[in-house]
Amino acid sequence: MLKRHEVNKSQGITSDQIIEYTSDRSVKNNLRPVRRIGFYDAQTQKHYAFITNHFDWSAKTIADIYKQRWQVELFFKWIKQNLKIKSFIGNTDNAVMTQVFVALCVYLILAYLKSQNCISQSLQKMSRLIHVNLFSRRDLMGLFKPPRDPEVNSLQWTLL
Asked: What pTM did the predictor assign?
């Protein structure tokens, strides 16, 4: 540690230090000193350590930015898990945003169908059923109803 700054613990900041890496690899690559901010989140009751190269910003600003960045990461994780975008068709900003918006619309329509019609299947299963039956002429709501039990022919012999 090269330097320690005074912190305001009432804001959740537990430490503000300037550190340098001392491994052989970091010395070989001539890595510059960095800033390490310690932060305690009272809501989650977790302690975080943030490493940054921003020396001019306040420790509270850096902690707030990283907290928001984590929310963005969680949002992208949710997108990957729920919208099932395997690959992007285009690579421009407009193409990617359009594909994400279309996938989000499909997800919201399925969620609306599920809630309005008390469908017991998961959204993933609903999506699969639609995907498999995409080119067949069937009633949409009929896809989500459980299959009826086949009627037993009374003329058949039954063994007891």
From this structure: 0.52
pLDDT digits (tens, 9 = 90+) for 24-49: 888 888 888 999 999 998 888 989 89
CB 115 within 8 A of CB 126: no
* Residue 65 located in a structural domain: yes
Q: Could you tell me if residue 82 is inside a domain?
A: no
| Two tokens, residue 158 | 């039954």
Residues 6+ positions from 21 with CB-CB distance below 8 Å: 27, 31, 34
Cα 160 from Cα 158, distance rounded (Å): 6
**Residue range(s) defining the domain that contains residue 32:** 3-75
**Number of compact structural domains in the chain:** 2
Which tokens is 119 given? 């469908």
Q: What is the DSSP letter of 11?
A: G
